[in-house]
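Structure (tokenized):
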């Protein structure tokens, strides 16, 4: 699946807030991802930032109030509104939120919103008291009831000096929300996909851990790719990386915690992709106090952890959920034989065999060399590609399973 932002016509409405300067970064990033971004500034937005800034980053005209009555006459808003595939308003002021809620069409932006038929995404920015005011809250509710999506506001220091909810979320979060909004009709729409990421951490004592070199990047990339395809994503992770917007994030540390969460989350899931590197052994007892070196070399007794995939395979045989399961196998030798054995043993629908013997594949690097293996013996080798491309290829392969369901 290509990035859902690519080749999309997006209107970015910018309203009067000091956060307007951040909108330039949003316009720039959306453009770099391949979107066609038409910016509309309200009169008060132009007090904070100029149309030239937006024109410079989008390479397209940025619209201001005068354009409503300018060359294209009063059809500018209709043309813009009808062509738009997504309307993002960031920052969205209290004034604009309330005008939109009540269907006002008193400036180019609100008129365009009235003329559009696309999803509406709002990133509020205002003082905390203003956001919490019953009038604003009522408008937010009205818009939400009509299907508008709000991202933020975040808590933090506000221009007024107050601290509270009112800050616009970061440009990266607005962009992630736009990516989410444009992916909702993808081939995995309505499907629940559970992804695990990172290496588990098994405590030795309150400061020391047994862990592994997994960065979590591959798992996060799978989560993004699944959401890009329209899925509702649950990400069970030991690390904290930029995650897809509106994905359900469950932070875990140990194999046991991961197992508990995977079991719960997959009880009604369509797909499980187990990209996490789960510890196979853990200290049998974690010391309650820090082990002191004066006491000499400690002897740490290890015990096996549960094999999460194997246990989920047994659940699946009993209840039929999750419907499909994909595993990863990181191997330093006999890649295909070892991975094929795991595919059978763990009763998977597909395994991604990852050759970690080379410096450009596996842990801590941005590329991977993988082969997809299937229960019927089919093997599909992929060239050296980025972890994002591996993730897209994994999700693309799963689409056939859900085509008619
Ligand atoms: N896995 C799991 N639970 C474990 C260990 C691994 O669910 N306790 C999953 C991994 O997330 C991965 C797949 O099983 O999707 C293969 O993991 P890998 O570590 O390659 O295989 P192991 O079964 O642990 O075998 P070995 O470490 O001996 O190669």
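Design, position by position:
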């Amino acid at each position: 699946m290509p990035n859902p932002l690519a080749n999309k016509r997006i209107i970015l409405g910018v309203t009067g807030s000091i956060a307007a300067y951040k909108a330039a970064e949003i316009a720039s990033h959306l453009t770099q991802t391949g979107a066609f971004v038409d910016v509309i500034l309200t009169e008060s937005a132009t007090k904070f930032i100029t149309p030239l800034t937006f024109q410079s980053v989008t390479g397209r005209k940025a619209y201001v109030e005068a354009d409503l009555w300018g060359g294209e006459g009063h059809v500018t808003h209709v043309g813009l509104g009808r062509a738009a595939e997504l309307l993002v308003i960031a920052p969205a002021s209290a004034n604009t939120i309330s005008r939109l809620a009540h269907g006002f069409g008193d400036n180019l932006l609100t008129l365009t919103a009235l003329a559009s038929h696309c999803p509406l995404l709002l990133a509020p920015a205002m003082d905390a008291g203003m956001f919490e005011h019953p009038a604003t809250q009522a408008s937010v509710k009205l818009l939400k009831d009509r299907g508008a999506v709000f991202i933020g506001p975040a808590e933090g220091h506000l221009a007024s000096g107050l601290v509270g909810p009112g800050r616009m979320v970061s440009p990266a979060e607005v962009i992630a929300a736009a990516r989410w909004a444009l992916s909702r009709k993808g081939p995995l729409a309505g499907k629940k996909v559970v992804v695990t990421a990172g290496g588990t951490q098994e405590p030795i004592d309150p400061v020391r851990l047994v862990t592994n070199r997994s960065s979590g990047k591959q798992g996060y990339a799978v989560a993004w790719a699944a959401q890009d395809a329209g899925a509702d994503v649950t990400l069970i992770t030991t690390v904290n990386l930029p995650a897809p917007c509106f994905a359900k994030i469950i932070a875990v540390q140990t194999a046991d915690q991961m197992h508990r969460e995977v079991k719960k989350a997959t009880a009604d899931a369509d797909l499980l992709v187990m990209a996490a590197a789960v510890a196979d052994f853990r200290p049998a007892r974690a010391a309650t106090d820090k082990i002191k070196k004066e006491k000499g070399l400690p002897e740490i007794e290890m015990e096996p952890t549960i094999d999460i995939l194997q246990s989920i395979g047994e659940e699946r045989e009993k209840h039929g959920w999750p419907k499909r399961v994909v595993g990863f196998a990181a191997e330093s030798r006999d890649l295909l034989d070892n991975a094929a054995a795991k595919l059978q043993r763990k009763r998977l629908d597909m395994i991604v065999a990852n050759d970690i013997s080379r410096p450009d594949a596996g842990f801590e690097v941005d590329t991977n060399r993988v082969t997809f293996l299937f229960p019927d013996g089919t093997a599909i080798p992929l060239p050296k590609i980025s972890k994002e491309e591996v993730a897209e290829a994994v999700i693309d392969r799963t689409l056939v399973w859900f085509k008619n369901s």
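Reviewer-requested clarification: The chain has two domains: 9-181, 192-402. Residues 188 and 265 are 17 Å apart (CA to CA).
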